[in-house]
Amino acid sequence: MSSFEPGDAFPDFTMETPDGGTVTKADLAGSKAVIFFYPKDNTPGCTTEAKDFSAMKSEFEKAGTRLLGVSKDSPKKHQNFIAKHDLSVDLATDAEEGGLSDTLGVWGEKMNYGRTYMGMIRSTFLIGEDGKILRKWPKVRVKGHVDEVLEAARSA
Fold it and tell me: Would you tell me which of 20, 94, 122, 123 could form a disulfide with 99, CB atoms 3.0–4.6 Å apart?
């Protein structure tokens, strides 16, 4: 898991957005941000997580916090995911290799039904207005997660 801890500067990044643009660390400067990493668009846990964050987006905005969901799915897959589930949360595509998830250590070895493979380890980071990590949630369980993150954003 990530060697990045609360108090550390969140690494710089540039990722592609579903609309063909990019999002960078600098784009998030001046406000708090929640960056949540999830394995794959349109899978049950990932859909629930993205819908939960979308449902609470206005509450995060009231807390001065932006939301960004990240997976290695293509921008086109993100477009379909957003349309299919009416998501309001911003999404970005991480690089296949050497991306932000690799830097943070949230891309790693996973096991499912006895099979070992490389994949995204569901993780969330709360970033302060100064670009430093305020809190991190490694190996997230989806149920109740959004409420916990919102409470942390409100008290940060």
Answer: 94
Model-wide pTM > 0.90: yes
100 found inside a domain: yes
Q: Which of 23, 28, 35, 46 is catalytic?
A: 46
Residue 6 lies inside a defined structural domain of this protein: no
| Mean pLDDT (whole number) for 58-78 | 97
Please give the mean pLDDT across all residues of the chain. Answer: 95
Domain, as residue range, for 50: 14-155
CA proximity to 57, closest of 146, 142, 127, 129: 146
d(CA 141, CA 152): 16
